[in-house]
Specification:
The complex is a heterodimer.
Chain A (H helix, E strand, L loop, with lengths): L2 H40 L1
Chain B lengths: L1 H25 L1 H6 L3 H13 L5 H15 L7 H14 L7 E3 L1 H12 L1 E4 L2 E6 L2 E7 L4 H4 L7 E5 L2 E2 L5 H8 L6 E7 L6 E6 L1 E4 L3 E7 L4 E6 L6 H14 L4 E5 L8 H11 L5 E7 L2 E7 L12 E5 L6 H11 L5 E3 L7 E7 L2 H5 L3 E10 L8 H11 L8 E2 L8
The chains are: A mainly alpha, B alpha+beta.
């Protein structure tokens, strides 16, 4: 793997990391929202 | 002592050269432009009698003199004229303003239409020749069994040892169904020759990769902004939608740009509503303001990032800038090329238009939606870094690094 390939791979990994974090945050947000909704329903 | 001896030899050689140079130099004008010194003296007397020539008259006069009196066979008038125009545009000290002769214009047309006639291989510079990064799917190169890493060291018997990638590409390409003989070096093996029939090849424009199966993160590698780019992008987005994609990486690395209209189309797939993509500002002020196109939004509504590097230029920067400014996607990677200009192809005259002689002039700077000046500032930065260069790119057996 050339230095250029390594740099490209590092950039891609960074992009994946950012998106995974955002997807994870979305999931957490969804579950909080679901929990609230369930709580409202149960009240 | 040896060094001193060598210095003496040089001095002895140089001195006669200076004498001869001085003698020849005094008559150089006559030798170059007239058949005899008396004719030259006559012309000089004639010149002193006349008023100063208008610059364009001077050009015509010089051209006529070369044609009529140059001691050797003068180059064709086309070549003389093109070289003159190149020289004139050079005075602008703008690396993006250039004259395209018919060959260059044809190559540019092929680049923007998204197809070309050749062997269909992605090439890059390599010691002793051009390295095949990968043959394109279903291409003549693929069918001939060429492999990534193969180095083309000669084309039709002509060595590529001291040939720029640009020129190598020109040699490899040719009319459809004609044959080209390539000498290939593969690893440590003896070079071998393969004959390939050229054919029409689609430029790779959009590739889709599933980079993270668990999270369904897709990467769209957009390699240029040809006419076909928006349609091919639509296909990619439909595929991602059907496969349940949850996030997108728009990879614009090494994308040198292309058509402004295609960049507006591409940005419109990702930016909802009526938003400004780019403003074009010329010498007289605002020339145009490009908005998202209605009905083009892909409505995927998934997280997105844009990958950039030093080879991301022009239309890539328009799209990336708009996506960032409208908070659609952050940019990740390296600083982009920094072009900041919109170029227009202008026919030089009706005759020249028919003969496809064009000059390409950047007529406007452009501004991203937030009006951060990506014109002057970027242009200065870009010109300092890339004077005389195009963004670095690979070549699809066509113009190479610096060629597109």
């Amino acid at each position: 793997m050339t230095e250029e390939d390594k740099a490209r791979d590092k950039q891609l990994q960074k992009a994946l990391e950012v998106l995974r974090e955002r997807l994870n945050a979305t999931q957490v947000g969804d579950s909080v929202l679901r929990a609230q909704t369930d709580a409202e329903v149960s009240r | 002592m040896r060094e001193r001896g060598r210095a003496w030899v040089y001095t002895l050689l140089l001195m006669p050269a200076l004498f001869i140079g001085g003698f020849v130099g005094s008559e150089a004008y006559a030798v170059l432009t007239h058949s005899s010194p008396s004719l030259m003296r006559e012309s000089l007397r004639d010149l002193t009698r006349r008023e100063a020539l208008e610059p364009t008259d001077a050009f015509r006069s010089a051209l006529a003199e070369v044609e009529a009196h140059y001691y050797g066979k003068p180059p064709a008038i086309d070549k003389l004229t093109y070289t003159s125009i190149d020289g004139m545009l050079g005075a602008l000290e703008d690396p993006y303003t250039r004259f395209m002769d018919p060959d260059a214009f044809r190559r540019m047309q092929e680049d923007t239409t998204g197809s070309f006639t050749g062997i269909g291989a992605l090439l890059e510079d390599a010691p002793g020749g051009a390295r095949i990064v990968r043959p394109l799917p279903n291409s003549p190169a693929k069918k001939a069994g060429l492999l990534p890493g193969d180095i083309i060291i000669a084309v039709d018997g002509k060595s590529l040892e001291r040939i720029a990638l640009d020129e190598a590409v020109r040699l490899i390409r040719g009319p459809r169904f004609t044959e080209v003989k390539l000498t290939i070096r593969r690893g440590e093996n003896e070079p071998f020759t393969v004959t390939i029939k050229r054919d029409l090849v689609e430029s790779p424009t959009v590739d889709v990769y599933l980079e993270d199966d668990a999270n369904k993160i897709y990467r769209i590698w957009l390699q240029n902004f040809s006419e076909k780019a928006p349609v091919l992008l639509d296909r990619a987005l439909n595929q991602i939608r059907q496969e349940g994609g949850r996030a997108i990486i728009l990879d614009l690395r090494a994308n040198p740009g292309g058509l402004l209209d295609s960049s507006i189309e591409v940005a419109s797939r990702f930016i909802p509503g009526d938003k400004v993509i780019v403003s074009v500002v010329g010498r007289q002020g605002l020339l145009d303001r490009k908005h998202t196109l209605s009905g083009r939004y892909a409505n995927l509504d998934v997280p997105m990032v844009v990958l950039m590097n030093g080879g991301s230029a022009s239309a890539s920067e328009i799209v990336a800038g708009a996506l960032r400014d409208h908070k659609v996607a952050p940019l990740i990677g390296e600083d982009s090329f920094g072009k900041g200009l919109v170029q227009t192809v202008i026919p030089t005259s009706p005759e020249h238009c028919r003969r496809y002689h064009h000059r390409q002039v950047p007529h406007a700077e452009r501004h991203r939606p937030e009006r951060e000046d990506c014109g002057r500032q970027a242009r200065r930065r870009s010109q300092a870094r890339h004077r005389g260069q195009e963004p670095r790119r690979l070549a699809h057996d066509r113009r190479g690094q610096g060629a597109r």
